[in-house]
Fold this sequence. Notes:
Elements: H1 2-17, H2 24-44, E1 46-47, E2 50-51, H3 76-85, H4 95-107, H5 110-134, H6 139-151, H7 153-158, H8 165-180, H9 184-197, H10 205-214, H11 218-223, H12 226-235, H13 243-246, H14 267-277, H15 289-305, H16 311-327, H17 333-338, H18 352-375
Helix pairs in contact: 2-5, 2-18, 3-4, 4-5, 5-6, 5-8, 6-18, 8-9, 9-12, 10-16, 15-16
Amino acid sequence: MPRFWSQILIEAQRLICNSRFRFFIPIILAVSAKLYGGLQIYRMSIRDGVFNTPWMNIWVDQAEPRWLYIFMAWDTSWYVSLAESLSFERTFFPGYPLLIRLFGGLVGNYWLAAFAVSFILGLASLPLIQSVAESYMGRGEALGCVLVTLFFPHIFLFTTVAYSESLFLFSVLAAWHFYLKGRILASTLSATVATLTKTYGILIVLPMMVDLLMKRRWSRAILTLTPAVIATLIVLPYTHKDILGRLILELNTATWAVSRETLGSYWLRDYVLPVLTASRPMSFFHFFHAYALALLAMLGCLAVASARIDWRLGVYSTVMFVTIISFGYTTGLIRYLSFIFPVWLNIKTKNIGVLTVIIVLFYIHCLILWHQFIWAPYPM
């Protein structure tokens, strides 16, 4: 009997993997998990019968309807403010705010637009991840890969809440997807969107350019420079003259100025360099930085290991990793590094039992992270 059910399961997997329905499975699971998570966060945010989050009392402009606050905290108000004012003097690039403005004009609500854009693009990224993964592994393994990626806590959260990560992930994946299909123009346009979303989005151009130069396709290689040119022309009119100092990386509102406290702000400057130059640490960990150390090392290994899948992705992942840990704000490193998509291509499994355990474990921590995102006094 166990053998009979095992054969049934194998046949069901084969049928699913050979049909278009395989692309809808992650979307269905994502919508279900995010709706349930949203309801849980809403329920836990009720005090004395009234729904409330700290951000209701902090932001001058109030989001309506009120349930949107389960998807909004920290930088969300900046994005909405930039969408309203079309000014980009802070360290936020204009891609996401411009989409908010465009969609907000249609629905008449910038706050709702900020949520909808992020949520929809987060879902739209899933079939792109799956399609890219299928270029490097079997369909069953690709489905497992996208499910693990979806439920990794930081990816799950920041493709749900009103942040720019969904747009960044979608545009970078689209750029590589189109490049693999030989559609250079579509790839270049997608890379332009990625660059306008986060400045390190331009790095997706690097593996394309190197590959094209090695193949001596000079005109196509030159075309890959388009994102940098377009981004410069769009961003410069909206920024102050200190663009290189404040917009070199859209990683946080902090700069490389010397820390005014003993808690490190930058991984390279405050932790790595002192190991080589100082007799004692110049800065000390927040309680959570020590835990991040292990994950940083693991993600670095996965970034380099992605070269086994595709040397071009290895170049992209490694350069992205080095860039982010060199300039990235410490509290956001795990978030930024999680969106280096090739690291997840190292995960290949179609074992339902293994995937179930991973998804359950990850999902519990997705809810923890979501709850902390709304209520914690520290940014993530």
